[in-house]
């Protein structure tokens, strides 16, 4: 504030030499996390591995609760909760940072494999809101699990190692693109056009030679038969590692930064939480991109069930009244990315209320569309509380919203968590090219977000 004016500040201008060095060190850790967490399953795996290194134990192993105890609880390999027990009783509420691990991608269909015109291909179904034309003519990696007829669980990760093959969705050549050129962006590439090329080497025999050769390779390497695709979850995602962007290496391009950049910052913050009065909870959830549905989505009872278990462990007593009190007195940061101002496309955002790359963590009071439909819309009292924490801890922050009125819109997990009668506001990292195969973030924003989440946990009353 200068003379009563609200002024957005560039993070770099608020940092000393030591902190600037920390920004780049953190950037290297962030890129490593992004490379290890291409999907929600691999994200959960990476989070638990790191948590264990910092003294977190499973809920079953935790024993009696006491201040400083570090606990994790996993759900079906797709979401996980980390908690650092605070000094106050759980009934006084918890402080939660919640983010999602799923990102737009191409899911392999249940009966995917076919052949045509000298190639073997797989049918896909796109997952989440993506611009389909961005996903063609792009090297893709294949991740996921296959449950075989023998009941064996096989983990698949092909396309990101240097000697791995990649996969590919073809596009029409511009020389013959007359009909495609007059279609809208939405119609130029359809969902059923997004077929994954997986081979072109024929097997011996007359029928299904290209398809059978792929099956021969899969059977030899993994013991997979065609029917095993029926009990598989395979995802095609952009191949390649997270990379620095710019001559100054100040930014990062990577797949899935919505919302794994907030997952990374939440993880990094909770691993270092100390002396927290309220119990600190980091919740890494699945299925946000398709409406928070399913047993691993935010609408699941998993979150409540874990809190119930913690309440019981606290003094071997539980009742619905205690859980209700816990939830009512809890505070939540819905950790999701914000749309950043793009100097090439400024017309979609309202500049006065848009996030700017390099100006710190973004507080988004509401998302939604069509007059805030589907929004959480945080109350003024809670926004004032978060402002105070950020100011007192020298957090560089800004406000943001998701585009101009009537331009479009979207949502987060915020409204679902607010249904539990908790205070909730969206607070996260600004992103350029959201939902594209590669998204762009700024390293000082990531650094400031880690500080913000840790301050929320340690200073939150």
From TrEMBL:
Claim: Zinc is one of the keywords in the record: yes
Pfam families the record matches: Peptidase_M18
Keywords tagged on the record: Aminopeptidase, Hydrolase, Metal-binding, Metalloprotease, Protease, Zinc
UniProt EC number: 3.4.11.-
Entry cofactors: Zn(2+)
Signal peptide: none
UniProt xrefs under SUPFAM superfamilies: Aminopeptidase/glucanase lid domain, Zn-dependent exopeptidases
Gene Ontology MF: a single term: aminopeptidase activity
Enzyme class: hydrolase
Family named by the database record: Belongs to the peptidase M18 family.
Entries under NCBIfam families matching the protein: PRK02256.1 (NF002600)
Protein name (Swiss-Prot/TrEMBL): M18 family aminopeptidase
Origin species: Bariatricus massiliensis
């Amino acid at each position: 504030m200068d003379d009563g004016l609200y002024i957005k500040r560039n993070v770099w201008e608020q940092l000393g030499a030591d902190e600037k060095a920390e920004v780049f060190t953190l950037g290297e850790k962030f890129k490593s996390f992004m490379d290890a967490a291409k999907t929600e399953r691999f994200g959960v795996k990476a989070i638990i591995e790191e948590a264990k290194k910092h003294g977190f134990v499973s809920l079953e192993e935790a024993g009696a609760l006491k201040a400083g105890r570090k606990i994790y609880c996993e759900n079906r390999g797709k979401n996980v909760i980390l908690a650092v027990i605070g000094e106050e009783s759980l009934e006084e509420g918890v402080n939660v940072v919640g983010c999602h691990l799923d990102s737009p991608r191409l899911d392999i269909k249940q009966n995917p494999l076919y052949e045509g015109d000298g190639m073997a291909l797989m049918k896909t179904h796109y997952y989440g809101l993506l611009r389909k034309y961005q996903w063609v003519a792009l090297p893709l990696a294949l991740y996921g699990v296959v449950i075989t007829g023998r009941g064996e669980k096989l983990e698949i990760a092909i396309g990101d190692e240097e000697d791995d093959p990649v996969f590919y969705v073809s596009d029409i050549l511009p020389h013959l693109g007359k009909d495609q050129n007059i279609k809208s962006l939405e119609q130029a590439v359809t969902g059923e056009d997004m077929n994954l090329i997986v081979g072109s080497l024929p097997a011996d025999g007359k029928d299904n030679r290209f398809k059978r050769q792929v099956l021969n390779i899969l059977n030899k390497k993994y013991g997979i038969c065609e029917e095993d695709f029926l009990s598989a979850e395979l995802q095609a995602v952009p191949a390649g590692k997270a990379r620095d962007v710019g001559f100054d290496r100040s930014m990062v391009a990577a797949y899935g930064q919505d919302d794994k950049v907030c997952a990374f910052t939440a993880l990094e913050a909770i691993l270092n939480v100390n002396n927290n009065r309220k119990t600190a909870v980091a919740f890494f959830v699945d299925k946000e991109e398709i409406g928070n549905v399913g047993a691993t989505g935010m609408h699941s009872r998993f979150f409540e069930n874990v809190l119930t278990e913690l309440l019981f462990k606290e003094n071997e007593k539980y009742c619905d009244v205690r859980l209700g009190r816990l939830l009512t007195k809890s505070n939540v940061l819905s950790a999701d990315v914000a749309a950043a101002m793009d100097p090439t496309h400024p017309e979609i955002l309202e500049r006065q209320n848009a996030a700017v790359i390099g100006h710190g963590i973004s507080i988004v009071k509401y998302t939604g569309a069509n007059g805030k439909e589907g929004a959480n819309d945080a109350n003024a009292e809670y926004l004032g509380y978060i402002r105070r924490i950020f100011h007192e801890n020298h957090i560089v922050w800004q406000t943001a919203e998701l585009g101009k009125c009537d331009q479009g819109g979207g949502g987060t997990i915020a409204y679902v968590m607010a249904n539990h009668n908790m205070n909730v506001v969206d607070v996260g990292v600004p992103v350029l090219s959201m939902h594209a195969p590669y998204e762009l973030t700024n390293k000082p924003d990531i650094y400031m977000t880690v500080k913000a989440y840790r301050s929320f946990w340690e200073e939150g009353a």
